[in-house]
Every structure is written in structure tokens, then in C-alpha cells.
Design a protein that fits this description.
Blueprint lengths: L1 E13 L4 E13 L2 E6 L6 H8 L7 E6 L2 E2 L5 H7 L1 E5 L10 H11 L4 H14 L16 H14 L4 E5 L7 H18 L2 E5 L3 H4 L4 E6 L2 E6 L12
Parallel strand pairs: 3-8, 3-9, 6-7, 7-8
Antiparallel strand pairs: 1-2, 1-4, 4-5, 9-10
Amino acid sequence: MERIKVESVSYSYQNKYQTVEAVKEVTCTFETGKMYVITGESGSGKSTFLSLLAGLDIPKNGTITVDGEDLSRIDRDAYRREKVAVIYQAFHLFPLLTALENVMYPLEIQGVARKEARERAEEYLKEVGIDEKKFGKYPRMMSGGEQQRTAVARAMASGGRILLADEPTGNLDTENEEKIVELLISLAHDRDFTVIMVTHNRQIAERADVRLVMKDGRMQVLSERDVSITGLAGQ
């Protein structure tokens, strides 16, 4: 089922020296139950495109619709609270909250009672493989892999089923990288998440259901499994 539809989207910004055309005429769709990976060189527009999907920026031209609603016309703060979650290379956990409290946070924002939020947060942490002994640890007391799995648990707790991941394994060793990739694939295939990951790692990209590459702001499909993507570079 289609979740996100991107139509002729372009985005540019002004830096100190020039106007940068970061995203150019991209048209694509993203479906539930699939893991998408976007690769490309630094400066190709990958992270900017992810920011557009997260509603952090609005296209200069074209439209992004999520479940049929134009992202530029809805409450984007509510969108990020309820439909989409982002995980980053640097984890971005709250440093003064424990692992459990980090995962409880989005639940409490949604109005879930503290007792229920705690119970649900514990379940999410267990699902991503965090031992109960770690629930009361602060991020600085946890390994990189544990921090990133906690970040995934927090994303799950947000209630959304769109997960955007910007270089989520960039700070991890090979073993923890594998655990995070398996977790993201499982969320897509077993929980019907729409997972969209930006990465430089070709081995991770080869495991995606749909593999795309950005070059000079344009999108191109490298491999796909039953997904509609048109108007791409080279076509």
C-alpha cells in the first residue's frame, strides 16, 4: 500500500556563496512493508531529501503527499509526532533521561498514562534486544549499538509507521550494524513499517527491497521489487 507519493519535487537553498539545487525533479512512491535504501556521494541530496520526507523542509516545487494528504498543508509537528520517526547516526537520545525514559517520552507526549507508558516502553526495549538491566542506564553508560537500538525503540513508541534513518549504522561496529539492519528489515516486513534509509554502505543497500541512488539531486533506481518509481534520472 502506498504511503508516500513524491511528485516532481525540487528543493534549493542559499549558502554563503551560491544557490544549491539539492533535489531536482524527483518523482517516486514509497509503500508499506518495504525497506528502501538511498545511496549516493556526499552532497548528492540524500539527507536533504530525507528532511523533506520528514516535513522539516518544504519543496520549492512539486508535492509530497502522505496517506493522500499534502505535507505542505497539514500540521507538520503533528505529522512528526504521529506518523513519522527519524533515527540518526549520532543517536540523538536525551542525555539526561534513562533508556526507559527516552522510550517513554513520545508515549507521554501522546497522553498515555505514565504507568502504561512505562509498560509499553519496557516491551519496545525488549523487542529491540535491550536487557532489563540497561533500562535505567543513561545513554553515556551504553554502547553505541545499545543507544541505536534504544533510538529504534523510541521510534516504535512514537506510533508512526514511517521510519526515516539517516546513516543509522555509521557509528557502529560490524556486529551492531548487522543487528540494526536486521531490526529495520523486520520492522518493514513483519510490522508493515515504511523504512527509508540513507547510507554509504553498499552491503546494506544490497539488502533493501528497493535500492536507489542520488546524484546531483536526481534519483535513480538501481534495483527494485514491485515498486512504482518514475521520472528518474536517465529516463
